[in-house]
Fold each of these.
Amino acid sequence: MDDKITNDPKQRRDFMKKMVLGTAASLMPVYGLQAWNEMKESMGEKSFVPVMLTPYNKDKSVDYKGLESLTDHYLAAGARGLFANCLSSEMYDLSPEERLKVTETVVRRVNGRFPVVATGSFGKDAYEKATFSKKLADTGVDAVILITSHFAAPEDLDETMIRNLEAYLNQTHSLSLGTYECPSPYKRVLSLEVLDFLLGTGRLVYHKDTTEDIEHIRKKLRLSDGSDLGLYNAHPNLSPRL
């Protein structure tokens, strides 16, 4: 299976320029200094990047027509990027086939106008996670999001998480990736050590931060300055300054 998301630096820069500033659904983008300046030059007005919901029919099946309308609503309201198949999308209650179809529906509806990211780290081991991520990449998403707590148990050290990430990375080749400190199955904060490891791969373009810790966010920003990483603060009222 060919990877649909390449390791091309220009594509990653274009991805970041698409992900413009703003807030919505508790998702505020915060960038390193270089990316911040580039973004301000390329976009003249603030916009938002919402985490998406999944509409259902009365029989509890996914309402894909409703999802298309919801996507249109987000875009009409000024969204300049979408996070599909996330916790707000009921990702843990969707089947693997529904996760893919939900993501594909959003990607098709957006039609390349703005970036779409979606969670791909489902499976009991690195092979299953990589297999699903490749299928997700085939939907046309701009980046596959990894849930930080999917790669280590609560008691595991960073060394274990890095080993598990390495096993996954070796099977996903050039996929552009993001990370999300999702509170489920448990909240695992992305440490500076793990962040540094991921930055070293040249594949990390997105991080949704849920620490609500301004000093830790500043450290992440400094560590990632000059990289292609966009850091998104999940707290709507916390605005880090360099």
Amino acid sequence: MRRICVYCGSSSGSDPRHRAAAHDLGAFLAQSGIGLVYGGGNVGLMGAIADGALSQKGEVIGVIPKSLMEKELGHGGVTQLHVVGSMHERKQLMVDLSDGFIALPGGFGTLDELFETLTWLQLSFHDKPVGLLNVGGFFDGLIEFISHMSQSGFLKPEHAACVLVETQPTALLARMEAFRPPDLGKWIEKLAAEAR
């Protein structure tokens, strides 16, 4: 993988482990020769992951909407900073630039990006791996809810299994590199038949 997109909070959160994990993940990606694509901010976990990658002379590509750039939230030290017109453009460009995706702790925006990327994978709009770096059990409730969606018949087990979860970057990257998307052709054909 040449580049990994990381979704994470513009806040640092209340647990110092989250900021440390963001910085360490950025440094780990750079040391592994993998470029970072992220939301372009200089605050919170976004700023920490960019700074971590830059500390190891890694490639860092930020993508930020103009409205946020105007509030002076853009990171001035990244390799490239793409300023786009909307959140939709931001998400699309981040996907286009990346070979895989990792979510760190965050809020609504992080979950929005994560679930849109998972939905696109489910619908075969891309075939790239999506992982959760579960720092300090932050995603435990979400992982349980994904299982609940599957058990309730709203999410196929093969789709639930597409969410790769690890607590350490090394293990997560190994799983992402080995990832092969499920063959969803029959599922999509069945949906099309039910819609007719």
